[in-house]
């Protein structure tokens, strides 16, 4: 479909996925990312009589010895539908503190810097340094966090751990492209670390570190690390990461960093977590991981999706082609308005098209008799002109190219939406259910985008374009669109 645009204006329109790597984590100032379980919307009332694995009891005892929990702590680990979670021991009010963890137990770049590997990791990206630290500490019998490592999962239902299944089920999806891109990225980072850090420092890394070890650490950080906590850009907090996600929770205001009272933790900073819901004794404590993540991001980061269709999304990537004869002018205009040579737009289910999408599309398609708008005379005002239809040819072009591109994208899937819905009615493995759910959601979004631009095509004759608006401004066009006087013969 890019060729259609190129033939008309020298610009290309591309649809592909956008990868979200640790260096580009999105989220609110206090953003918890964690788990290993797939039932995202279960509500448990389980009591505490269900026994937990011995490793969990050992972990809990360690927390007692470290002064993190006591007889007054209102929650305790329990077996829940998601696997493992925190269950209340008493009735809890909304916003009541359920746990506090001192900074000395956090795993973050400061912990790395203070360790034996701090010097060799000082020049690394924070997530790479913390990943190496996690791997090394897990192999040490004397690690402060050895009992914490005992309750961490070996892997999650994240698509990075089941790429072969995703590849089989998700042919044509953005999730497949993103998953494969992330795996390639992680592998490349590991090979570089192996060559530059791990092998030259065998005394610091005596135990062999494998690619599987590195993927484990990546998954732990991807699913459990807080970002932007006060001065912390990346921090893993034991115990806090046992709390599961629920779509019932619609606020992310649950985590705080406070200073401990004198004598409690020697004025150590505390991570304090509050329950966003009122709970009865025996209920599971839930939080909201991220209100803004799509189902594809939830699948990649945590290994679950929500049944809520509003989480379905599709990312449109638009690009100004370097072969466009107006490339420099268009790039200058895009950059002046907060965009670049490429622009990414996340389309969500039942939401309006994102701001900037239509102006950017019109800019990419601009050419022919509309190219006068690219002149320097209009440079400071052109984006305002692009907010509304420029010309019938321009508007018709973007509708046609988008719809043809959507048709091509839908043809890449091996199933229809109806077939996916029938498949979902059967009993599916959790990972298979994630893949099918994402595949169905993407197709629904593509159909929604097609419907949006189909409606625009039907309105082309009723729209008001730049020339008509300009003539009205000059008083040369009547309210009904008729051009006044002899000027009409020139149009």
UniProtKB/TrEMBL annotation:
Its main location: plastid. Residues 439-466 form a coiled coil. GO terms for biological process: methylation. SMART domains: SET. Its EC number is 2.1.1.259. It catalyses: [fructose-bisphosphate aldolase]-L-lysine + 3 S-adenosyl-L-methionine = [fructose-bisphosphate aldolase]-N(6),N(6),N(6)-trimethyl-L-lysine + 3 S-adenosyl-L-homocysteine + 3 H(+). Substrate binds at residues 224, 228, 241, 256, 289, 302. GO terms for molecular function: lysine N-methyltransferase activity. Keywords: Chloroplast, Coiled coil, Methyltransferase, Plastid, S-adenosyl-L-methionine, Transferase, Transit peptide. The keyword Coiled coil applies. Residues 66-290 form the SET domain. It is found in: Plastid, Chloroplast. One of its GO terms (cellular component) is chloroplast. S-adenosyl-L-methionine binds at residues 82-84, 224, 244-245. It is an enzyme of class 2 (transferase). SUPFAM superfamilies: RuBisCo LSMT C-terminal, substrate-binding domain (SSF81822), SET domain (SSF82199). Pfam families: Rubis-subs-bind. The keyword Transmembrane helix does not apply. InterPro entries: Rubisco_LSMT_MeTrfase_plant (IPR011192), Rubisco_LSMT_subst-bd (IPR015353), Rubisco_LSMT_subst-bd_sf (IPR036464), SET_dom (IPR001214), SET_dom_sf (IPR046341), SET_RBCMT (IPR044431), SETD3_SETD6_MTase (IPR050600). Belongs to the class V-like SAM-binding methyltransferase superfamily. Plant protein-lysine LSMT methyltransferase family. This is [fructose-bisphosphate aldolase]-lysine N-methyltransferase. It comes from Flemingia macrophylla. The lineage of its organism: Eukaryota, Viridiplantae, Streptophyta, Embryophyta, Tracheophyta.
């Amino acid at each position: 479909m890019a060729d259609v645009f190129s033939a008309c204006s020298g610009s290309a329109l591309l649809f592909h996925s956008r990868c979200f790597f640790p260096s580009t984590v999105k989220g609110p100032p206090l953003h918890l990312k964690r788990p290993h379980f797939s039932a995202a919307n279960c509500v448990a009332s389980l009591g505490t009589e269900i026994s937990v694995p011995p490793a969990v009891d050992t972990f809990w005892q360690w927390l007692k010895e470290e002064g993190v929990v006591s007889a007054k702590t209102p929650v305790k680990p329990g077996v829940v539908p998601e696997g493992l979670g925190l269950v209340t021991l008493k009735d809890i009010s909304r916003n009541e503190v359920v746990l506090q963890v001192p900074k000395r137990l956090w795993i973050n770049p400061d912990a790395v810097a203070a360790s034996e590997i701090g010097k060799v990791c000082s020049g690394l990206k924070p997530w790479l340094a913390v990943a190496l630290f996690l791997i090394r500490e897990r192999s040490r019998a004397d690690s402060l966090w050895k009992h914490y490592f005992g309750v961490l999962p070996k892997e999650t239902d994240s698509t990075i751990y089941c790429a072969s299944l995703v590849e089989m089920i998700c042919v044509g999806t953005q999730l497949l492209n993103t998953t494969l891109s992330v795996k390639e990225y992680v592998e490349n980072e590991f090979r570089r670390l192996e060559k530059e850090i791990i092998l030259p420092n065998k005394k610091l890394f005596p135990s062999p570190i494998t690619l599987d070890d590195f993927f484990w650490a990546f998954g732990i950080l991807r699913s459990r690390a807080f970002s932007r906590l006060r001065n912390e850009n990346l921090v893993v907090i034991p115990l806090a990461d046992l709390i599961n996600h629920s779509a019932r929770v619609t606020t992310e205001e649950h985590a705080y960093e406070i200073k401990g009272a004198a004598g409690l933790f020697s004025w150590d900073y505390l991570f304090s977590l509050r329950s966003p819901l009122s709970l009865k004794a025996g209920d599971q404590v839930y939080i909201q991981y991220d209100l803004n993540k799509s189902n594809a991001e939830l699948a990649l980061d945590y290994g679950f999706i929500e049944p809520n269709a509003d989480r379905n999304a599709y990312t449109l990537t638009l690009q100004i082609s370097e072969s466009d004869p107006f490339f420099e002018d268009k790039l200058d205009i895009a950059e002046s308005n907060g965009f670049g040579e490429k622009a990414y737009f996340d389309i969500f289910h039942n939401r309006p098209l994102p701001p900037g999408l239509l102006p950017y599309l019109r800019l990419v398609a601009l050419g022919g008799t509309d190219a006068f708008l690219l002149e320097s005379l209009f440079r400071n005002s052109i984006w305002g002109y692009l907010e509304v239809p420029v010309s019938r040819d321009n508007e018709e072009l973007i509708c046609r190219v988008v719809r043809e591109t959507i048709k091509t994208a839908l043809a890449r899937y091996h199933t229809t939406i109806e077939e996916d819905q029938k498949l979902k009615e059967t009993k599916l493995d959790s990972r298979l259910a994630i893949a099918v759910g994402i595949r169905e959601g993407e197709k629904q979004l593509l159909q929604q985008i097609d419907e949006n631009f189909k409606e625009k095509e039907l309105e082309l004759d009723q729209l008001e374009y730049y020339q008509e608006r300009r003539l009205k401004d000059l008083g040369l066009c009547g309210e009904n669109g008729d051009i006044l006087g002899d000027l009409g013969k020139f149009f």
